[in-house]
Amino acid sequence: MNRSLPPIASLRALEALDRLGSATAAAQELGVTQSAVSRQLQTLEDHLGASLFLRDRRALRLTPQARDFADHVRAGLDRIAQGALALRLAPMGGALSLAILPSFGMRWLIPRLPDFARRHPEVTIDLGTRLRPFAFSSEAFDAAIHHGAPSDWPGTQHLTLMSDRSRPVAAPSLLPEGPVSLARLARLPLLHMQTRPRAWQHWFEAQGARPGALPGPAFDQFTTMIQAALHGLGVALLPDYLTVTERASGALVPAFDSAPVSLGAYHLVWPSDRSVSPALAAFRDWLATQAEDEDETLPR
After folding, report:
1. Cα–Cα distance between 15 and 73 in angstroms, integer?
2. Is the model's pTM score more than 0.70?
3. By the 8 A CB rule, do 182 and 204 touch?
4. Which structural domains are found in the chain, ordered by start?
5. Where are the transmembrane segments (predicted)?
């Protein structure tokens, strides 16, 4: 394949200038002189045959088109760095870079990973945290764990792992007489997840109730919400898999007498515009054996 690629040093200079805001800062990071950065940028302009900079007496500023190009360059450099790291760490089997949801990763995925490691010692899995969908084109991840509907993450294929069956729980000190009515529950302090702002609303609707506004403190992770519930700060709407130990010990008790409600599902997602690497294929196929909903395990 014949590609007329710009020199890598010029691309690094452009990316550093865009990110750091000045040729001086870019030169310091790259370990070269400011004049060397200027020469690299001039080389890039000559190679592309386009003006990339707005020059004035005070600063060297990128044009809007050059800023967009710098975003593509940054993503490309990140992918190169990720590939180089993967080759160093796992030269025979490759590596898989996976974005995980913190609580799901800690409570569900990581306890199962030793089995994958035994079955596929040639594959290295690198884990990073992401709370919301992102563009695979601008992040150095091969796949991600997603909660919600697959349609929430366009441009991906998915493998459904498990349903999110949730129930309201609280510390016994907050519920001295045990489970309460829906009306009473709506008046208690309710703990919310920032990434699931309508979860409580959906849960009440599943009970046939429309309680109106449901104010309460919000948390960005389930781990901190669980701690808040354990210390009696409010009622938490939590997936069952996260509270098995706390419910078994009595540290958290049901706030309402009903079965858990499905509030979505967890999925493995990967970009549909990329070929599936051997490492991802091995991980996906192994995860299919771990999925809890047997009729939802085929990639879509």
Report:
1. 7
2. no
3. yes
4. 8-74 (1.10.10.10), 88-162+264-296 (3.40.190.10), 164-261 (3.40.190.10)
5. none
